[in-house]
Amino acid sequence: MSWHWETFVFAIVAFGILYWLLNKYAFGPLFGIMEKRRQLVLEQMNAAEASRKQAESQMAEQKAALEQARKEAYEIIEQSRLTSSKQAEEIVQSAKAEAARLKEEALKDIESEKNKAIAALRNEVGGMSVKIASKIIEKQIDEKSQEQLVNQYLKEVGSK
Amino acid sequence: MHHFPIVHWQGLNIDISAFLAIIISCVITFVLARLAVRNLSLTNPGKLQNFLEWTVEFVHSVIASTMPLNKVRPYLALGMTLIMFIFISNLLGLPFGIVTEVHDPIGWLGITSEDIQEEEHYALAWWKSPTADLSVTSGLALVVFILVHYLGLKQNTKHYLKHYFEPYWYFLPLNIIKELAKPVTLALRLFANIFAGEVLIATILMLSVWGIPFLIVWQGFSIFVGAIQAFLFTILTMVYISQATIHDEGAEH
């Protein structure tokens, strides 16, 4: 096996040129793209982490909001239950009061009607008894004193 | 054994087979790399791009095994060029050979009638692996040798110079021999492995038809050897660079 310095030098030069060409036209862009991809993956991982955290906080917020809404709904129901029972109570109360008032009025009316009827009856009876007495005793008595007399008698009768 | 076609031109001895092999290896390496990066894609890399990226990651991990991770980046392109060029060179001589038999003297190749008469079959081999030529592997080793010592001197001057006198000053000759042995072994190991592979292929070819099974087995093994040698050359280069340039504080005695 022989050793030629021409081949030796040519190999070195060729390797140098190959290294330069590869570095410029192949590895440069390739390393660039690999670095970019590394960045991209890193970014995406960070973004995923951020969105996960955001989702978690939103979830918690929504849970709190739901809890709040539930509480409010419960309160509203409770309140309405209270007011409705109170209103029912009031309605019943007022109806009772109305009924009592009506009854009272009716009783009063009855009383006054009765009194009126008694007074009318009394007048009627007084007139009739004057007519009867004037007819019976045929005595000339002025009507006024007669009526006084009869009234007096009737009072005596009523009080007895 | 075959002879190689050597052109004698203006006092230069140009080995056509070696020149041709070097050029073809370089072209294949460059075309392969260019094809791989033709349609670079960030999110959807093609098959070749994927393969080259895998190679880059492999070389990256190889270099990272010899030196701290933050110093790997500048040597990545060198490692890639070395491993790709040497691997392709190692495989170049495997698939076929071009051999011509010479019966008449050829003036421009310096073949005289005495040369032809000396041997029964004077044959010229036109096709081989560039790494099966000691001139080529020694050229690569010289590149590595110069690079290692230049980087050592430039980046790690004090410790680089000091290590020649360690552990005692009179170890200087031994240290120099050690440094010189590195490129020599680098060149000889690569050359011998690939050259031996090709010699064995040539020998098996002499068995004609009966050699086919051996040829299949040996060619398969040669691919494996070629890969191993490319890997070894690359990792040893990186180890040498790392030894020369990186001063490990923890290793101080």
UniProtKB/TrEMBL annotation, chain A:
Known InterPro entries for this protein? ATP_synth_B-like_membr_sf (IPR028987), ATP_synth_b/b'su_bac/chlpt (IPR002146), ATP_synth_F0_bsu_bac (IPR005864), ATP_synthase_B_chain (IPR050059)
Q: Which Pfam families match?
A: ATP-synt_B
Q: SUPFAM superfamilies, per this entry? A: F1F0 ATP synthase subunit B, membrane domain
Q: How does it sit in the membrane?
A: Single-pass membrane protein
Q: Which residues form a coiled coil?
A: 38-123
Q: Which Gene3D superfamilies match?
A: F1F0 ATP synthase subunit B, membrane domain (1.20.5.620)
Any transmembrane segments, and where? 6-27
Q: Which CDD domains match?
A: ATP-synt_Fo_b (cd06503)
Going by the UniProt record, its keywords in alphabetical order are: ATP synthesis, Cell membrane, CF(0), Coiled coil, Hydrogen ion transport, Ion transport, Membrane, Transmembrane, Transmembrane helix, Transport
Location of this chain's protein in the cell: Cell membrane; Endomembrane system
Q: How does it assemble?
A: F-type ATPases have 2 components, F(1) - the catalytic core - and F(0) - the membrane proton channel. F(1) has five subunits: alpha(3), beta(3), gamma(1), delta(1), epsilon(1). F(0) has three main subunits: a(1), b(2) and c(10-14). The alpha and beta chains form an alternating ring which encloses part of the gamma chain. F(1) is attached to F(0) by a central stalk formed by the gamma and epsilon chains, while a peripheral stalk is formed by the delta and b chains.
Question: Can you tell me which family this protein belongs to?
Answer: Belongs to the ATPase B chain family.
**What role is this protein assigned?**
F(1)F(0) ATP synthase produces ATP from ADP in the presence of a proton or sodium gradient. F-type ATPases consist of two structural domains, F(1) containing the extramembraneous catalytic core and F(0) containing the membrane proton channel, linked together by a central stalk and a peripheral stalk. During catalysis, ATP synthesis in the catalytic domain of F(1) is coupled via a rotary mechanism of the central stalk subunits to proton translocation. Component of the F(0) channel, it forms part of the peripheral stalk, linking F(1) to F(0).
Sorted alphabetically, which NCBIfam families does this protein's record hold? ATP_synt_b
What protein name does the entry list? Answer: ATP synthase subunit b
Which species is this UniProt entry from? Paenibacillus cisolokensis
Give the classification, highest ranks. Answer: Bacteria, Bacillati, Bacillota, Bacilli, Bacillales
The record's gene field reads atpF
From TrEMBL, chain B:
Report the membrane topology from the UniProt record.
Answer: Multi-pass membrane protein
Transmembrane regions: 16-37, 75-98, 134-153, 186-210, 216-241
Question: What subcellular locations does the record give?
Answer: Cell membrane; Membrane
| Pfam family for this entry, one | ATP-synt_A
Q: In its keyword annotation, does this UniProt entry include Membrane?
A: yes
Its principal location? membrane
The cross-references to Gene3D superfamilies, in alphabetical order and at most eight, read:
ATP synthase, F0 complex, subunit A (1.20.120.220)
Keywords, sorted A to Z: ATP synthesis, Cell membrane, CF(0), Hydrogen ion transport, Ion transport, Membrane, Transmembrane, Transmembrane helix, Transport
Matching InterPro entries, A to Z? ATP_syn_F0_a_bact/chloroplast (IPR045082), ATP_synth_F0_asu (IPR000568), ATP_synth_F0_asu_AS (IPR023011), F0_ATP_A_sf (IPR035908)
Q: What does the function comment of this entry state? A: Key component of the proton channel; it plays a direct role in the translocation of protons across the membrane.
Family listed: Belongs to the ATPase A chain family.
Protein name (record) = ATP synthase subunit a
Q: What is the lineage of its organism?
A: Bacteria, Bacillati, Bacillota, Bacilli, Bacillales
